[in-house]
Specification:
Length: 260
């Protein structure tokens, strides 16, 4: 099992090749894990309380180059997730809690099917801030709370791994400000930070708060860093437009291609 810090951002720019598109998964968290959340909930059976949508802008800086990705996400309490990528290329990704994933590229009318838990809707960042989450699900993933202390106005929690499968993460530092996660750091061996994440610009949604700006810095073994900033806008839990993609399905008559 592969693990990552808190969430996975999947970007799949398509390139034409031999009349099909090749898949490039640009996972901004270098290693990825699966969050064990079965579903998120808002305490109501109504449509407005069990669906959430947002426009997302992603910026990644590496080697003095900036990659920009724009997408819309449509997340449902049953675990279904639809992501509509609009820039730099248009395509759709549909996935669920089991990692059953389909990716559709309208420009070529091609679709690929995968079964990969690293693509599971449980990896979506919204799942980490819903009422059923606790300490960003670190305990669900094999970490145990080692210590809790107060630093100024913040609460600092240290988690250590109880899972033999987690070989590249020795410790996690989670910092709360006003009862909200504001910082998290993953430590490899020798107390070296491999990844750190900042959560900011919180807004209040029905029954939970959510950070609309998430900044992550990942370090490789050479000491180089990748900086990623993800911004969430137009977050809705009701009053959805008629063209909302919660129930989007792949059109009939598409050509199936091999993702590998």
């Amino acid at each position: 099992m592969r693990f990552c810090s808190f969430y996975v951002i999947i970007e799949m720019p398509f390139k034409k090749k031999d009349s099909c598109f090749s898949l490039k998964i640009n996972v901004y968290c270098i290693n990825s894990f699966v969050f064990l959340l079965l579903s998120f909930f808002f305490g109501s059976d109504s449509f407005a309380q069990t669906h959430i949508s947002a426009d997302v802008s992603v910026r990644q800086l590496y080697n003095n180059k900036i990659l920009r990705v724009e997408k819309q996400i449509f997340f449902t309490s049953n675990g279904n997730l639809v992501v509509h990528y609009t820039y730099p290329q248009e395509y759709y990704m549909i996935t669920n809690t089991l990692g059953e994933t389909s990716v559709y590229h309208p420009a070529t009318n091609e679709v690929m099917y995968m079964n990969d838990m690293t693509l599971s809707s449980q990896s979506e960042i919204f799942s980490l801030f819903t009422p059923s989450s606790s300490d960003l699900h670190l305990t669900d993933m094999g970490f145990s709370l080692q210590s809790t202390k107060k630093e100024n106005d913040n609460i600092v929690k240290i988690f250590v791994s109880d899972n033999s499968r987690i070989k590249d993460i020795q410790k996690v530092k989670l910092v709360y400000g006003k009862d909200r996660p504001i910082y998290c750091a993953f430590y490899s061996d020798k107390e070296k930070i491999s990844k750190k994440t900042y959560f900011s610009d919180y807004i209040t949604l029905p029954n939970f708060s959510f950070p609309t700006v998430i900044t992550q810095i990942s370090y490789d073994t050479k000491g180089d860093s990748v900086i990623m900033k993800e911004e969430f806008k137009n977050i809705k839990t009701d009053n959805f437009s008629d063209d909302a993609l919660f129930k989007y399905t792949i059109p009939k008559g598409t050509k199936r291609v091999n993702p590998y």
